[in-house]
Amino acid sequence: MKLGYLKNVRIVVSLAVLLLLLLVFIDIGAGFLQGVTDFFIRLQLIPSIFRFLALFFTISGLGFVLVLAITWLVGRVYCSSICPLGTFQDIIIAIARVFKKKKNRKFAYSANPKNPIRYGILGATIILWLSGSLFLINLLDPFSNFGKISVTFFKPAYIWLNNQLSFLLERFYIYAVDPLAPVSMTFEVILISGVILITLVIMSALRGRLFCNTLCPAGAMLSLVARKQVFQITFNEEACNFCGRCERVCKAECLNSKTKTIDHSRCVGCFNCFNACSNEGLSYSRKAALVANPATEPKVNAGKRQFLLALATGLLSIPLFNNTSKAKGFGRPGLVPTGTTMPVIPPGALSHDHFTSHCTSCYLCVGVCPKNVIVPTMFGHGLQGIMQPKLDFHKSFCNFDCVRCCEVCPTGAITPQTLEQKQTIQIGIAVFMVESCIVTIDRTDCGACSEHCPTKAVDMVLWDNLRIPEVTPDLCIGCGACEFACPTYPYKAIYVESNPVHKQARPIEESEGPQEGALDEFPF
After folding, report:
1. 73 conformational bin, left if phi > 0, alpha if psi -120 to 50, beta if neither
2. pTM
3. Contacts of 504 (CB under 8 A, 6+ apart)
4. Which of 4, 230, 355, 490 could in theory staple to 275 by disulfide, Cβ–Cβ 3.0 to 4.6 A?
5. 352-504, which class in CATH?
6. Which residues have a Cβ under 8 Å from the Cβ of 259 and sit 6 or more positions away?
7. Neighbouring C-beta atoms of residue 314, cutoff 10 Å
8. Cα distance between residue 420 and residue 243, in whole Å
9. Where are the domains of the chain?
10. If we measure between CA atoms, which residue out of 436, 512, 440, 443 comes closest to residue 476?
11. Percent of the chain, pLDDT > 90?
12. Angle of helix 34-42 versus helix 45-54 axis, rounded to 10
């Protein structure tokens, strides 16, 4: 039976999944496809495992079980069809072929499976995770890396194109396309995302799926299961004529046409070999395929194992970098340095410990936040939480009537919340700095913070014939509307101090709020 059609099926499925997930990351409404999109997000291996643990063994976190079952049955088709980063690498491989000479477009079997590297990295990843650090997961998880690339590079490109189209149509008095606010990220975050992208481009262009079989912890995990898969790609002894076409298209470099052996732990199920074979020399068989001769495989170097273990131990000993210095200064409004002792995290994150131990820095919440208040931070959560996001109230504020981040988080780092629940979660408390306020220094009225507080937690009270803010802590939810609206510069006269463990604020009565103008796009 000819199986060449499997490649075409794989291409259609993988491109569909890639497009759906890309639309989510750059926040283009999927509409009626939302259910399908959520299904494929739940199938992402590492985020699914974290969701299962974070949400107390929830059914929505069982996607990894399905992935492992499929891998055990037919091999690592997840890597070629469901993983968006895998498809992204395939696109890079296809583009690179165009610029290569014909003789350099061919792949060749690699007798070195690089087991010390891939399983060493997997082991180090697990050691760090059990020790409370997601350092390697945040840098190597394929779904998270696809998110970093999408939000850091593809979303700004989409916003620029959208705004150019909006500007062009406005010249003809057509207002069908609304302009979008640009996404701003720090240089360090862009640099890390750029290094990840360049690394993927180089590895894919030169060696196909090398990343999947060396650096990717998800690939290493699935390779252990794939060794015992039930249905395997095997050679038909009578039909195979040693033409080598299958080997030349194997981007995992796991197929040896000379010895008719396949390393199924590296095979990503792209089915290029089926499509290349014109003589039905390959098939899916329940019978275990021939394995490579152990004598020809390189032995694991004990020194490499010790090096990787030492590296993991060294990472554990590196101190976390948190700058909590608050120097004092006076002179004019906004000169008193302020800042929360730890980053403010989204509602639904429960606590700083819960968030940092489950967030894989996929940037999905960053991509869908309509106010762009959720931003990646390099070392805001320490080295263990590298590139995990926070709320930046200097750039925006958390919309009182929005739960988008609670809906999309794939790992359970941000737990699902209804709108009513979210509106009483206290992620922090506003702190008023009287010595930095315009009212007390310039002796002029302001009140921007109070006008934009959705819960009336910030009220204006009499002070020396003027009115200054006063915070009612049990009403404050820490949304940051007051901090964003405060006009003092470079520091705010009112800021949100993060709650290490989220609390409950007192629900507001209908007569109390939200105040008129609290949800306006701009404070002034």
Report:
1. alpha
2. 0.86
3. 424, 425, 426
4. 4
5. alpha beta
6. 290, 292, 293
7. 9
8. 65
9. 5-295, 352-504
10. 512
11. 71
12. 90
